[in-house]
Each structure stands twice: as structure tokens, then as C-alpha cells.
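Aim 2, interim progress. The first record below pairs a target sequence with its C-alpha cells.
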Amino acid sequence: MINNTSSYPLSSVPPGPAEKHDINISEESFPVIRELVKAYPDICRIGAKSRVQDTYLLNHPDAVKRVLIDNHKNYVKGVGFERVKLLLGNGIIVSN
């Protein structure tokens, strides 16, 4: 479990809205993210409108630690990040 208030095992698909959203780093996404965090405070799966892969919004420290530290090798970013790395360097956005 992520924490005592979570009601799903880590092996299951996290809850999320039925409506699909494209979550980006943009002014349009911020109000959507704000509402999603209110509705799903720990972790949320968001179906993407224009991408194949779903988006996952992690807001609980244990979930973030699981992805970034404990099981980081299980989470791979797409090939497009290699191109972004040329522009931004090896920061948090592009590092594995």
C-alpha cells in the first residue's frame, strides 16, 4: 500500500478519471492537475488523449520514492528524452 488511506495494492492499476487528458507542463494543464490531486491525493492514472501511454501523477512521498529510488530501473523514459538531453543537459527531467 502507498499509505494507510490507499485502498488498492501496488500491483493494480491506480484509480483515475474516466475522461482523458493530455498532461503537459503548460498553463492549461495546471488546473486539471490541481483537480486531479484533490480527487486522487496519492496517485492517479490519467488516460492520454494524444499519446499511447497513460500518464501517472504521483503525489505521495512513498510513491515518488518507489519510482525514483527503489524501482527506478523499471521506469524508462521515451527516446525523445535523448534529444531533449542535448538541449537541457542531464537534469531531473531527462535522467533515468
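The second target in this work package is listed in the same format:
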Amino acid sequence: LLRSGIVASLARPGGNITGISKLAPQLAQKRLELLKEVVPKASRVAVLWNPSFAEFVTDWEELQAAARQLDVRLQSVEFRTPDDFGRAFASMTKNHAEAVTMFSDPAIFFSPGRVVSLAAKNRLPAIYPFKEGPEAGGLISYGADILDLVRRSAHHVARILGGAKPADLPIEQPTKFELVINLRTAKELGLTIPQSLLLRAGQVIE
């Protein structure tokens, strides 16, 4: 939002825009860290993302810095629509990716099964931004608690209906996060999930 110029600042957005953001560069970094815990030997990680969103460009830049610290080589794999997913995963395989992470794009939220099936077909351990990923058979997810964001959005709406101006209401960042792990998928991929990670998970699918 800031990079695209839609709002002046998160604290005072100005204009008629406010709300709750699910985006935060540190989430992309955290997913990469969690993926390395699950697949510690992975040195080539594909990043499935849509550069049409200006905020994801920031995420990509931040993620590269985190990758250097984790001794991970990132492979940028771009898409614009779900029709690009097949080509994207073919590119990952061709370039010998050993795992895949992704940003919180709506296309991934609404098509989790499609991404999950391609990851399974290519035997790529993947971490998803939404719990719908592992619930559809994906390996692991980490992201903002969507139900919490919906509740907080309702509070924003109530304040506006009560007379508050959107320009004066800060755009809030996520405060609650979900870690979901699918043990069945881990077993199919021959992976052992560290006990320390299982203890931190909000949901474990067996």
C-alpha cells in the first residue's frame, strides 16, 4: 500500500481508505525460516509470487536478505493468474528447486488444491501463506489468522458507521498468526517434522 502510493502512511492513511492488512514482509521471512527447519538441507528454494502487486516486490527484496543469512539460493517464479501455475512448477523442477514458498496472493487462497496438487506431483515440500494449503493436502502453512482479521475489520466498520473518518483510522497489521502442519504429507515426502516445530503448531493434521 505504501509502495504503490495508495495510502500516505499506515498510521494515518488519508483519503477514504483504511482497514486491516494481511501483508507483512516479515511473514515471508518467517516462512522461509520454517521451511528450512522442515527441510534443513534445502539450498535452492523457489518463490512463487505475483509481481503485479507492488507490496510483493517489497516482500521479495526483504526475502532475499533473509535467504543470504540462511544460506539459501532463491529462484523467482512469477505468475499472474492460476493458469500460470503449471508453467511455474515446471520451471521450478527444471531449475532443480528443492522446496517452495509463496506470498499471500488471493489466487493461492482461492486455488489451494491446484497449487497443492502441483507441489505433490513435483515432490516439492511447500509452505503456504494460508491454512487452506495444508488442509487441502499441502505440507505446512504460516500466516495471519484470517478469522481474526475479519473480526477486526468488523470493528473498523463499526467505528466508521459511528462517525469516524477512514483517513484517521490506522491500517492495522496482523497480530495473530497460524502455523499448520500436515503430517501425512510430511510422511509422503519422507520428511520428519522436528518436535519443537510440532509443539508450536496451532493445528497438526494426522
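The mean pLDDT is 84. This observation will shape the mutagenesis plan for the next reporting period.
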